[in-house]
Amino acid sequence: MPQYEKILLKNMETSGYTGSLADYEHAGGYQALRKVLGKIAPAEVTELVKKSGLRGRGGAGFPTGVKWGFLPKEYQGPKYLCCNADESEPGTFKDRQLMERDPHQMLEGILIACYAIGAETAYIYIRGEFALGARIVERALTEARAAGYIGRNILGTGVTIEIWLHRGAGAYICGEETALLESVEGKRGLPRVKPPFPATHGLYNKPTVVNNVETLANLPYIITRGPEWFASIGSPPKSTGTRIFCVSGHVKLPGNYEVPMGMTFRELIYEHAGGMRSDKPLKAIIPGGASAAFFTEQHLDVKMDFESVAQAGSMLGSGGVTVMEEGTNMVWAALKLMEFFNHESCGKCSPCREGSPWLVQTMRRIVAKRGRMEDLETLTDLCKNIAGRTVCAFGDAEVAPIMSTLLHWRHEYEELIREAEVTHPKELAMAAVRH
Ligand SMILES: Cc1cc2nc3c(=O)[nH]c(=O)nc-3n(C[C@H](O)[C@H](O)[C@H](O)COP(=O)(O)O)c2cc1C
Questions:
Q1: Where are the domains of the chain?
Q2: What is the pLDDT of residues 105-141, one digit of tens each?
Q3: Which CATH superfamily is domain 21-231 in?
Q4: Hey, whose CA ends up nearest to atom 5 of ligand 1?
Q5: Which residues pair with 303 in a beta bridge?
Q6: Cβ–ligand 1 contact at 344 (below 6 Å)
């Protein structure tokens, strides 16, 4: 198996590394901050990040430097950075590891981003369930403050940056950037209509950048080792750097794997994650968190970069790769995801609020062998009326499991319905009359 240089997991995989400030500094930590503060102009830092090709690791894959460039240049008032540590996507568990095992890496990234965009205040919005992570990040913040990396006049450069930790209350929707902003403001986490975008009207209506933990953690290395080095890793020019893929499901070695983008699913699953746990053939892959359309074993040789996965009909999303073996009922699998989305629908937009329970009800009926063939049309119709018709991308996300399982495994839906016709003929006949 080829060996790859790790960037973000390297420190924590070194024997004896605790993630303390002393360990991080010993590994070269905060050198990037020393290199930029007062020495490289903020606009130039943004240019370096653009040159590196870094794209967001939170889900949408938007180019990071370009996003920073959208902030109004002449604006004199306060600007904010929000670090999205909500990690609410099922199957995704990388930000948690980054925060628990190497919190200063993320903090240095936040400080560099704040300097580049001219923000004096940053909020880390951490998922409510990450109680341990919150304690570790708080301790790291205290250490970094005491060492002069956070606060007023950082390292004597005259730069002021304060970072606050904000714990969420456990809602998936608060990972969506504008719902996150509402939540930090103390309101119920409901997504905002865009435009205006956070770049101009973000936190407290001020120019704001929201970036994911993993995105920010890459910044110190882009500064110390140069954007060209970063841009040479992965699948340049559009998918540069490494990704931490969170492999879960029916594999022998589930866990986080940091590999260059562009590796195939086959290599990740069979060489890194040890292959299938029971040596049954692979049946399905969720390539990028629960919001991503399912792949089949036919997609094993698709490259894990933004373009290749999109061309194959799904998305790299949050990097959560869930593997399912032969024997898994795909209608049941889609139902489990749909139950999650139904529970988490925030209720703001009617197609999602009304459509989600309807989808769950219909799916449950099919799985319970009480479905009818017309249900498949109802499911398709509902999905089409939700996708693209909601304020945020939640609507598109929740229909992906159903649409993709209907595409690849429609026969499994039909088999369950045919069994229903045998098991409950009277009931179905009555339902047809009522219909
Ligand atoms: C329903 C929903 C949930 C999301 N959850 C997360 C999340 O938990 N963490 C995250 O970083 N991004 C999440 N996102 C994406 C964010 O809205 C945003 O694009 C991201 O934080 C931007 O950071 P990046 O450019 O560094 O990726 C979610 C998006 C949607 C629509």
A1: 21-231, 238-325, 330-434
A2: 999 999 999 999 999 999 999 999 999 999 999 999 9
A3: NADH-ubiquinone oxidoreductase 51kDa subunit (3.40.50.11540)
A4: 175
A5: 264
A6: no
